[in-house]
Design a protein that fits this description.
Helix content is 81%, strand content 0%. The termini are far apart. It has 8 helices and no strands. The protein has 232 residues and is an all-alpha fold. Helix 2 (45-91) packs across helix 3 and helix 2 (45-91) crosses helix 5 (125-136).
Protein backbone atom coordinates (compact mmCIF):
# COMPACT_ATOMS: atom_id res chain seq x y z
CA UNK A 1 0.00 0.00 0.00
CA UNK A 2 1.61 3.32 -1.04
CA UNK A 3 2.47 5.68 1.73
CA UNK A 4 0.63 8.96 1.86
CA UNK A 5 3.10 11.72 0.99
CA UNK A 6 3.83 14.10 3.83
CA UNK A 7 3.32 17.67 2.70
CA UNK A 8 4.27 20.42 5.11
CA UNK A 9 2.38 23.66 4.76
CA UNK A 10 4.06 26.68 6.21
CA UNK A 11 3.38 30.32 5.59
CA UNK A 12 5.69 33.14 6.43
CA UNK A 13 4.07 36.54 6.06
CA UNK A 14 5.98 38.49 3.45
CA UNK A 15 7.14 42.02 4.07
CA UNK A 16 4.46 43.29 1.67
CA UNK A 17 1.72 41.52 3.64
CA UNK A 18 3.06 43.04 6.86
CA UNK A 19 3.00 46.49 5.27
CA UNK A 20 -0.59 46.01 4.12
CA UNK A 21 -1.57 44.91 7.63
CA UNK A 22 0.10 47.96 9.19
CA UNK A 23 -1.45 50.43 6.76
CA UNK A 24 -4.92 48.91 6.62
CA UNK A 25 -5.23 48.43 10.38
CA UNK A 26 -4.45 52.06 11.15
CA UNK A 27 -6.42 53.27 8.12
CA UNK A 28 -9.56 51.56 9.34
CA UNK A 29 -9.31 52.55 13.00
CA UNK A 30 -7.91 56.10 13.10
CA UNK A 31 -10.22 57.80 10.55
CA UNK A 32 -13.16 55.80 11.92
CA UNK A 33 -12.43 56.99 15.45
CA UNK A 34 -12.04 60.58 14.22
CA UNK A 35 -15.30 60.49 12.27
CA UNK A 36 -17.15 58.88 15.18
CA UNK A 37 -15.84 61.51 17.57
CA UNK A 38 -16.80 64.38 15.26
CA UNK A 39 -20.25 62.87 14.70
CA UNK A 40 -20.98 63.49 18.37
CA UNK A 41 -19.76 67.10 18.24
CA UNK A 42 -20.83 68.58 14.88
CA UNK A 43 -24.03 68.70 12.86
CA UNK A 44 -22.62 68.75 9.33
CA UNK A 45 -21.16 65.82 7.41
CA UNK A 46 -19.05 68.29 5.41
CA UNK A 47 -16.98 69.01 8.49
CA UNK A 48 -16.42 65.31 9.07
CA UNK A 49 -15.52 64.71 5.43
CA UNK A 50 -13.06 67.63 5.38
CA UNK A 51 -11.40 66.60 8.62
CA UNK A 52 -11.45 62.92 7.64
CA UNK A 53 -9.82 63.49 4.25
CA UNK A 54 -7.19 65.73 5.82
CA UNK A 55 -6.42 63.04 8.39
CA UNK A 56 -6.24 60.30 5.73
CA UNK A 57 -3.76 62.31 3.65
CA UNK A 58 -1.66 63.24 6.66
CA UNK A 59 -1.83 59.73 8.09
CA UNK A 60 -0.89 58.09 4.79
CA UNK A 61 2.13 60.39 4.42
CA UNK A 62 3.23 59.86 8.01
CA UNK A 63 2.76 56.09 7.91
CA UNK A 64 4.43 55.80 4.51
CA UNK A 65 7.38 57.87 5.67
CA UNK A 66 7.62 55.73 8.78
CA UNK A 67 7.73 52.57 6.65
CA UNK A 68 10.39 54.11 4.40
CA UNK A 69 12.60 55.11 7.31
CA UNK A 70 12.17 51.71 8.97
CA UNK A 71 13.24 49.90 5.79
CA UNK A 72 16.19 52.26 5.32
CA UNK A 73 17.22 51.71 8.93
CA UNK A 74 17.14 47.92 8.43
CA UNK A 75 19.34 48.25 5.33
CA UNK A 76 21.81 50.58 7.06
CA UNK A 77 21.96 48.29 10.09
CA UNK A 78 22.71 45.29 7.88
CA UNK A 79 25.50 47.13 6.06
CA UNK A 80 27.06 48.28 9.34
CA UNK A 81 26.98 44.77 10.81
CA UNK A 82 28.31 43.26 7.58
CA UNK A 83 31.21 45.72 7.56
CA UNK A 84 32.05 44.90 11.18
CA UNK A 85 31.81 41.15 10.61
CA UNK A 86 33.97 41.41 7.48
CA UNK A 87 36.66 43.25 9.46
CA UNK A 88 36.58 40.57 12.17
CA UNK A 89 37.05 37.80 9.59
CA UNK A 90 40.10 39.59 8.21
CA UNK A 91 41.63 40.67 11.52
CA UNK A 92 40.35 38.17 14.10
CA UNK A 93 40.38 35.01 12.01
CA UNK A 94 41.03 32.49 14.77
CA UNK A 95 38.27 33.94 16.93
CA UNK A 96 35.81 33.87 14.04
CA UNK A 97 36.73 30.27 13.17
CA UNK A 98 36.02 29.33 16.78
CA UNK A 99 32.65 31.07 16.57
CA UNK A 100 31.76 29.02 13.49
CA UNK A 101 32.66 25.85 15.37
CA UNK A 102 30.54 26.90 18.36
CA UNK A 103 27.57 27.72 16.15
CA UNK A 104 27.74 24.38 14.35
CA UNK A 105 28.34 22.60 17.62
CA UNK A 106 25.03 23.97 18.81
CA UNK A 107 23.38 21.92 16.06
CA UNK A 108 24.98 18.72 17.32
CA UNK A 109 28.02 18.49 15.04
CA UNK A 110 31.11 16.97 16.70
CA UNK A 111 34.58 15.62 15.97
CA UNK A 112 35.71 15.19 12.39
CA UNK A 113 32.31 16.10 11.01
CA UNK A 114 32.44 19.43 12.84
CA UNK A 115 35.98 20.16 11.69
CA UNK A 116 35.11 19.33 8.08
CA UNK A 117 32.06 21.62 8.19
CA UNK A 118 34.09 24.47 9.71
CA UNK A 119 36.80 24.04 7.08
CA UNK A 120 34.23 24.04 4.26
CA UNK A 121 32.57 27.23 5.48
CA UNK A 122 35.76 29.17 6.22
CA UNK A 123 37.43 28.19 2.93
CA UNK A 124 35.26 30.67 1.04
CA UNK A 125 35.20 34.21 2.43
CA UNK A 126 31.81 35.21 1.01
CA UNK A 127 30.21 31.99 2.22
CA UNK A 128 31.82 32.52 5.62
CA UNK A 129 30.55 36.09 5.85
CA UNK A 130 27.03 35.10 4.82
CA UNK A 131 27.07 32.28 7.36
CA UNK A 132 28.02 34.63 10.18
CA UNK A 133 25.43 37.22 9.17
CA UNK A 134 22.67 34.63 9.12
CA UNK A 135 23.54 32.24 11.94
CA UNK A 136 25.45 34.47 14.36
CA UNK A 137 23.55 37.73 13.93
CA UNK A 138 20.25 36.41 12.59
CA UNK A 139 20.19 38.98 9.78
CA UNK A 140 18.98 38.63 6.20
CA UNK A 141 20.15 41.03 3.52
CA UNK A 142 17.32 43.53 2.85
CA UNK A 143 16.07 44.22 -0.65
CA UNK A 144 17.64 47.54 -1.75
CA UNK A 145 14.30 48.54 -3.31
CA UNK A 146 12.41 47.73 -0.14
CA UNK A 147 12.16 51.27 1.30
CA UNK A 148 10.07 52.96 -1.45
CA UNK A 149 7.94 49.84 -1.95
CA UNK A 150 7.21 49.68 1.78
CA UNK A 151 6.33 53.39 1.90
CA UNK A 152 3.94 53.11 -1.05
CA UNK A 153 2.27 49.92 0.18
CA UNK A 154 1.62 51.30 3.66
CA UNK A 155 0.37 54.66 2.35
CA UNK A 156 -2.03 53.13 -0.20
CA UNK A 157 -3.33 50.62 2.35
CA UNK A 158 -3.95 53.45 4.81
CA UNK A 159 -5.93 55.44 2.22
CA UNK A 160 -8.03 52.42 1.24
CA UNK A 161 -8.75 51.60 4.86
CA UNK A 162 -9.52 55.21 5.76
CA UNK A 163 -12.03 55.73 2.96
CA UNK A 164 -14.23 52.87 4.18
CA UNK A 165 -15.50 54.57 7.39
CA UNK A 166 -15.54 57.98 5.69
CA UNK A 167 -17.53 56.95 2.59
CA UNK A 168 -21.01 57.20 4.21
CA UNK A 169 -20.31 60.79 5.28
CA UNK A 170 -19.28 61.61 1.70
CA UNK A 171 -22.43 60.05 0.21
CA UNK A 172 -25.07 60.95 2.81
CA UNK A 173 -25.98 64.35 4.25
CA UNK A 174 -27.82 63.07 7.32
CA UNK A 175 -25.16 62.72 10.02
CA UNK A 176 -27.02 60.12 12.10
CA UNK A 177 -27.65 57.92 9.08
CA UNK A 178 -24.09 58.34 7.87
CA UNK A 179 -22.79 57.44 11.33
CA UNK A 180 -24.85 54.24 11.42
CA UNK A 181 -23.62 53.16 7.99
CA UNK A 182 -20.04 54.06 8.91
CA UNK A 183 -20.22 51.86 11.99
CA UNK A 184 -21.66 48.97 9.97
CA UNK A 185 -19.22 49.26 7.07
CA UNK A 186 -16.22 49.61 9.34
CA UNK A 187 -17.27 46.72 11.58
CA UNK A 188 -17.68 44.49 8.53
CA UNK A 189 -14.34 45.66 7.12
CA UNK A 190 -12.58 45.04 10.44
CA UNK A 191 -14.01 41.52 10.63
CA UNK A 192 -13.02 40.70 7.04
CA UNK A 193 -9.61 42.29 7.43
CA UNK A 194 -9.01 40.50 10.71
CA UNK A 195 -9.94 37.16 9.15
CA UNK A 196 -7.69 37.72 6.15
CA UNK A 197 -4.86 38.84 8.43
CA UNK A 198 -5.29 35.64 10.44
CA UNK A 199 -5.11 33.58 7.26
CA UNK A 200 -1.84 35.19 6.20
CA UNK A 201 -0.21 35.22 9.62
CA UNK A 202 -1.23 31.73 10.68
CA UNK A 203 -3.44 32.91 13.57
CA UNK A 204 -6.95 31.52 14.06
CA UNK A 205 -9.11 33.55 11.66
CA UNK A 206 -12.06 33.94 14.02
CA UNK A 207 -9.79 35.05 16.87
CA UNK A 208 -7.95 37.50 14.63
CA UNK A 209 -11.24 38.95 13.34
CA UNK A 210 -12.59 39.37 16.88
CA UNK A 211 -9.40 41.05 18.10
CA UNK A 212 -9.34 43.45 15.16
CA UNK A 213 -13.01 44.35 15.63
CA UNK A 214 -12.53 44.86 19.36
CA UNK A 215 -9.53 47.19 18.96
CA UNK A 216 -11.21 49.26 16.27
CA UNK A 217 -14.44 49.44 18.24
CA UNK A 218 -12.69 50.54 21.43
CA UNK A 219 -10.81 53.30 19.60
CA UNK A 220 -13.97 54.63 17.99
CA UNK A 221 -16.01 54.37 21.21
CA UNK A 222 -13.38 56.29 23.18
CA UNK A 223 -13.25 59.07 20.58
CA UNK A 224 -17.05 59.26 20.39
CA UNK A 225 -17.50 59.45 24.16
CA UNK A 226 -14.82 62.10 24.63
CA UNK A 227 -16.28 64.25 21.85
CA UNK A 228 -19.77 63.81 23.29
CA UNK A 229 -18.61 64.91 26.75
CA UNK A 230 -16.68 67.97 25.60
CA UNK A 231 -19.37 69.07 23.13
CA UNK A 232 -21.87 69.64 25.94
Amino acid sequence: MPATPHVEKHFTATETVRDVVIGMADGLTVPFALAAGLAAAVSSTKVIVTAGLAEIVAGAIAMGLGGYLAARTDAEHYIAEETRESWEIDNLRDKEVQEVAELLGGYGLKGDVLQSAVAAITSDRNRWLNFMMHFELGLEQPDPKRAPISAGTIAVSYVVGGLIPLAPYIILSNISEAFAYSVGFTALALILFGGIKGQFTGINKAKSAAQTLLLGGLAAAAAYLLAHVFSR
